[in-house]
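Intended use. Records like the one below are meant for learning the mapping from a protein sequence to its folded structure. Do not use them to infer anything beyond what is encoded.
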Amino acid sequence: MSTDEPPDQSPVDPPPPEPAPAAQPAIMVQPQPQPEPRPTPSAKPAREVIYRHTLVVRVTHWINLACITLLLMSGLQIFNAHPRLYWGQYGADQDKAFIEMMAMGSDMDHLKGVTTVAGHPFKTTGFLGASAGADNAIVPRGFPRWATLPSFQDLAVGRRWHFALAWLFVINGLVYLGFGLVNRHFSRDLAPTREQIRPSHILKDIWDHMRLKHPRGEEAKSYNVLQKLTYLIVIFILLPLMLLTGLTMSPGFDAVAPWLLDLFGGRQSARTLHFISANLIVLFVLVHVVEVFLAGVVNELGSMITGRYVVPPEIHS
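Structure written out for the chain above:
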């Protein structure tokens, strides 16, 4: 029998666990500042061109300009035949004139022009009452020779010019009026909106005009309220007044429409109203020309020749 002892069956202790590695301190990585992008130069706004004036409006506009200029010059020639204006049914040298242009002086070498308005005299030598003639000598004359058609004093020729141009002016005006009604030019382009006729809006437009501030961007694509009101007054009040008072001065037309004499208070009153309305139209033209130059003469004239208008871009501060 063997004496060998059986092997020890007692459990063996497991080896001790290895110690956990020590925790490493966290390293904070600071993000590097990114370079700011360089500002790119702002691109120029696109050039915007709109079709502003139709062919009919452009053609009638230039015909009107020629007619008004020549009608004024021939009308001043007619006025010089009797450079006085009256109010009422009659008008003769012994009646008291409302406006009078005359030359005063003892002889032709010492003439002085004097214009009297409502009893108040003004010295107007060289322009009204007495001005240079063909030989540069001062002569009695209502308006100067450079302002009349023809330049020399000739009532008959002045009347022929005036009546012929008046027919052309009326026909051209009827074409413009008919086109404006059919094409809705008046209702679309000239009729003020409800917002525009507010007193605050009108005062703002007046203030902008006084500061010579003209519309840009979207505002420049349409007429402002002052333009609309002015155009409507000229088209529908001043020009018809010019036509009717001119017809009232014609004895032949008075036989057809005698009510015109009653409407205007007599032929001499009609002559005075004709003269005043003509001067208001001249004032409108002068202001219109000044505004064209202030707003940009090349762009404004170009739009009335080609119909195309370059919209002034908005100015961003």
